[in-house]
Sequence to fold (181 residues):
Amino acid sequence: MLVAKNPSQRIAKIMDIFISRPTVIGKHFESRYASFHTFLEGLGMKLRRLGAGTDHSKKAPLRAVIDLVSECCGAIVLGYPQLEFHNETKRSDEVQDSFRHVFPTPWNHIEGALAYSANTPVLVVAHGNIKGGVFDHGITGEGVLHVDMLEKDWHLNPKFFKPFEEWLDEVKECKTRQTIT
Fold:
């Protein structure tokens, strides 16, 4: 059963949820994110990100994120490709070997760690072969969901949905978060 199809699953009170993602992502990703954003708002979540929407601060970015995370009942870390490197080894004109590696924003690791240190329920979602740090299985003791975030309505896929419902159950038990100093 999908939460989106069951109105009784809507969160009783609006809860602040911290979103960790790059400020700028590819336009194809942005359209899929917009659908996910609307889905979360439909469940009664107020999504918070530093530098986007209404959350701006004159504080140093790290201090502002610490304060923002401490105001939230949950966090979602979205690993979108931010930097991409390609390397080829050629002999004459023939490619002998090629290598491609993508990296998320380093802020995903910082923000994810801050959310964990505040005992905030954290859901980590990575596109494709995003890996390393908070996106490595076993680092946080939680699973990392690897999904194709270019897929239409990826957030309704059963592979995503069961872990999301488990995270949502934790979020619904929101208590005062531990202050990070």
In short: The first helix runs from residue 27 to 42. Confidence is low (pLDDT under 50) at residues 1-8.
